[in-house]
Specification:
Layout (H helix, E strand, L loop, with lengths): L2 H18 L6 H12 L1 E3 L17 E4 L2 E6 L6 E3 L12 E3 L5 E5 L12 E3 L4 E4 L13 E3 L4 E4 L13 E3 L4 E2 L21 E2 L1
Parallel strand pairs: 3-5, 4-6, 5-7, 6-8, 7-9, 8-10, 9-11, 10-12, 11-13
Antiparallel strand pairs: 1-4, 2-3
Length: 198
């Protein structure tokens, strides 16, 4: 094979390789983020186009075309959190903290984000009950729901959060007693690793 032909083959291989590793968001995940944005009257400034990973949307980090981090703390986001959040199956970190215009119920579908390790919703205006489905997040280590408008009792299902180290629900309208396991029902006494429980 001639030197020119080898060079041409090498250039072709490099072009194919670079197109394969480009940061193109999987379509379902791009649609999920667009659905989130559609529920917000005020949102992050540069969320434009159809490729959150390739366009470097503010607060979005990706790996292998999957959205793995959403960190939108203190961006004056207002509106609600869409059920479509469940369509981000590789998400490990969700931080929407200190957006007081962000409210409504916490979607039960967050319980489907089984890889989630950090859920930070402090300083927003989320209301309603703490979804018992959060108890399905077995990898969750950090759960901060403080300074919202949550009410009702603490669901015993949160006792399933065996990896939880930090749990804070202060400054809400929580009522009732702390659930304790009794052989039939789960309780927060099952959170053996938890070092911060408020």
């Amino acid at each position: 094979m001639s030197l020119q032909l080898r060079y041409l083959v090498l250039v072709l291989i490099l072009n194919l390789w670079s197109s394969c590793i480009s940061a193109e968001t999987l379509p379902d995940e791009a649609l999920a983020l667009q659905s989130l944005a559609s529920k917000w009257q005020v949102g992050p400034g540069n969320w434009a186009g159809s490729d959150p990973c390739g366009s470097n949307w503010v607060g979005i980090n990706c790996s292998n075309s999957h959205i793995i981090y959403i960190v939108l703390s203190g961006l004056s986001i207002s509106g609600s959190l869409s059920d479509e959040i469940q369509n981000l199956p590789e998400l490990v970190h969700l931080d929407l903290s200190f957006n007081p215009g962000l409210g409504g119920p916490i979607p039960r579908t967050i319980g489907n984000l089984v890889k989630l390790r950090r859920l930070v919703l402090v300083g927003c205006s989320f209301s309603g009950f703490i979804p018992p489905e959060l108890g399905k997040l077995s990898r969750l280590a950090f759960l901060s729901l403080n300074s919202n408008k949550l009410r009702g009792s603490i669901p015993g299902e949160l006792g399933n959060l065996s990896s939880l180290i930090w749990f804070d629900i202060t400054d809400n309208e929580i009522s009732g007693s702390i659930p304790v396991s009794d052989g039939t029902n789960l309780g927060l006494d099952m959170l053996k690793k938890c070092q911060h429980l408020y």
